[in-house]
Amino acid sequence: MFRKYSIASFTIVSINIIYYLFICAQSGNFLTKIVQGPGYDLLVAYGAKENGLIASGQMQRLFFPIFMHVNLVHLLVNMFGLWSIGRIFEMIAGHRNLFILYLVAGITGNFCSFALLQNLSVGASGSLFGLLLCLFIIQKYEERLSKQFKRPTQGMQFGRVLLVNLVLNIIFGFSIPIFDWAAHLGGSLAGILFGFALTTRHKWNLKFILSSANSMQLKKKFFERHRIYYVGIILLNILFSMAFFNIKKYQIIYGKAIESAAENKNMVMSYEDLPQYEDILVSQNEETNPENMQNDAIFLHENGYFFAALNLYEVLYTLSKEGFGSEQFSSDSNKVLLKAAIELAKQDRITIATMKKYNQKKIYNKKNITEICAKPAALYMTLGFFQISGKLYECAYALNLGNDEYALKGIESFHLAEDTQGINQILSMINIADKK
């Protein structure tokens, strides 16, 4: 019975599957990605809902997520729902209305998610919930008409189909990291309004045809005008879009940072890879020579830049433990010195006398003091040592809270190094700086 009513359903399901395979194909291990999913960075790169990027003008992120999925299970669950529900809806309301509602419910769901939920999210479930709730309204209307005209109901077990899909999506939704209850809510509200629009229009036509004596005298009441429900969907989206006024600076910087990270093709280097770059980092560039960096860290410490000095000390201690740099720098005595400096910087206390003797005084001015951390950060990032560059950019941002580029690069580095704590530290600093 559904064969001639599945054109739109088949098209929508096909688009979802093809787009999922296309995104997975952008990574090296195609078969693994199909099962496990394209991953966070590819989702960001190809249109996932991310509040900061939407607020920065990337409005396409309200559209593309309705065709994107986290992994194969997520895709199969949603496609099962769309195939089973979509054909029923298509038979009742037609191909055009299925396409329209799929887009309207999906976009409304993403607007609602933008307004109420900061998490990155993807999935067709907002559209699916819209179809489910729209069918529910149609079913209730059909039951009322059947009762009114004393005819058997044509419910076709909608209730069971709706319940299975609803429970399946909710259970699965809580089992994946990108569960978006707000998109489900927005899609559901759009589906309810769309259902009222369809049934109200049908109801008026039916009353006009079936009424005999007073058919020409019937007047549409306000809520019997189907257009009012379409207006309601528009107003709902406008209401959700008011979240643009509440978007925070740190959200925009974070969004841009992870987008940049998603496009970064550099290989992530580990500390074991440091020796092959020793000539570049120690001999050819003064800014990244560990001994010069240690002098700079002591200078910052002595002048009260405790947090910046702490970040620089932590980088130096890591390099020293890895045996990087000169014998003096990687010696046990210098490791002890750096460890003591880290503890003093944490307590906002000035350096000890032994450390002052190590320091060879340099003169800095307010314009170039951030270069103490920013210059080595750029080189370490270019080479792919993202954990180190993240710490150094955090140091640079601490020295100049007005430079959002340092914050952005720091978050990008920490994201590539999978350091959540580092990301959260910089986000907190942006928030504090923004309030000031």
From TrEMBL:
Record localization: Membrane
MF GO annotations: serine-type endopeptidase activity
Example of a GO cellular component annotation carried by this entry: membrane
Segments forming domain Peptidase S54 rhomboid: 57-199
SUPFAM superfamilies reported for this sequence: Rhomboid-like
Keywords per UniProt: Hydrolase, Membrane, Transmembrane, Transmembrane helix
InterPro entries, per database record: Peptidase_S54_rhomboid_dom, Rhomboid-like_sf, Rhomboid_protease_S54
Topological type in the membrane: Multi-pass membrane protein
Residue intervals passing through the bilayer: 7-28, 62-86, 98-116, 122-138, 158-176, 182-200, 228-247
Pfam families linked: Rhomboid (PF01694)
Family per similarity comment: Belongs to the peptidase S54 family.
PANTHER family the record matches: PRESENILIN-ASSOCIATED RHOMBOID-LIKE PROTEIN, MITOCHONDRIAL, RHOMBOID PROTEASE
Descriptive protein name: Peptidase S54 rhomboid domain-containing protein
Native source species: Fluviispira sanaruensis
